[in-house]
């Protein structure tokens, strides 16, 4: 199999159900999810395979689901095949957020991205995920999408925040609060 096809040399690319310009909002949206997936893989490389085996397993599942997001975003018409991203996937992200959040100490203010290498990389994932979400919002203004992808990316960025804090906590690294912030977080109950 050849990697190159030459079919995109004129500035268009294939999506499920047709061809669009390479800078089309649809391509921007699923391209940003692809970028996010690369950063997730990089972040996994900074985790401790023994201590963080649960995180690594969850992040591997998320990598597959990010591909599902991209696949749904590349679909021009839902009639061509069923969507892959579901509300149940969003619910599971919420359960993971709660599970990992329970491991970390309370915070009152925003925190600065950083700390351990794993945490820093997961904060990059969080911000790229937010950009992917913005691209999906832009796409949804003019074209049909799987609405669950937008919800999934919104919740996923929250998970990246939580697992970045978890990675720091497990590594014995304290989060650094943004000292100019008001108290914006409530205590865990």
Describe the structure.
With 189 residues, the chain is mostly helical. A two-stranded antiparallel ribbon has the order 1-2. Strands 3-4 form a two-stranded antiparallel ribbon. Helix 1 (25-44) runs antiparallel to helix 2 (53-73), helix 1 (25-44) packs antiparallel against helix 4 (117-142) and helix 4 packs antiparallel against helix 5. The protein contains 5 helices and 4 strands; from the N terminus they run ββαααβααβ. It has helices at 25-44, 53-73, 87-101, 117-142, 147-171, and strands at residues 12-15, 18-21, 111-112, 176-177. A hairpin with a 2-residue loop joins strand 1 (12-15) and strand 2 (18-21). One of its GO terms (molecular function) is corrinoid adenosyltransferase activity. InterPro entries: CblAdoTrfase-like, CblAdoTrfase-like_sf, PduO-typ. This is Corrinoid adenosyltransferase.
Shape: elongated
The run of helices and strands is: EEHHHEHHE
Radius of gyration: 18 Å
Would you tell me the structural class of the helices and strands?
A: mainly alpha
Average of per-residue pLDDT values: 92
Continuous helix count: 5
**Stretches where pLDDT falls below 50 for ≥5 residues?**
none
**Overall helicity:** 55-70%
Task: Trace the largest sheet across and list its strands.
Answer: 1-2
N-end to C-end Cα span: 55 Å
Pfam families: Cob_adeno_trans
GO molecular function: corrinoid adenosyltransferase activity
Domain Cobalamin adenosyltransferase-like: 3-167
Protein name: Corrinoid adenosyltransferase
């Amino acid at each position: 199999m050849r990697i190159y096809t030459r079919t995109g040399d004129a500035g268009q690319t294939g999506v499920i159900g047709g061809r669009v310009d390479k800078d089309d909002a649809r391509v921007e949206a699923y391209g940003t999810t692809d970028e996010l997936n690369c950063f997730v893989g990089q972040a996994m490389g900074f985790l401790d395979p023994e201590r963080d085996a649960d995180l690594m397993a969850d992040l591997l599942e998320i990598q597959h689901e990010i591909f599902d997001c991209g696949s749904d975003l590349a679909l021009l018409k839902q009639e061509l095949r069923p969507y892959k991203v579901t509300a149940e996937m969003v619910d599971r992200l919420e359960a993971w957020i709660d599970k990992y959040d329970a491991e970390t100490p309370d915070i009152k203010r925003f925190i600065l991205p950083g700390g351990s290498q794993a945490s820093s990389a997961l904060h990059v994932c969080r911000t790229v995920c937010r950009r992917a979400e913005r691209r999906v919002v832009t796409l949804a203004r003019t074209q049909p999408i799987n609405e669950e992808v937008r919800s999934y990316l919104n919740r996923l960025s929250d998970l990246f925040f939580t697992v970045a804090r978890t990675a720091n906590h497990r590594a014995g690294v304290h989060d650094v609060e943004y000292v100019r912030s008001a108290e914006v977080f409530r205590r865990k109950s």
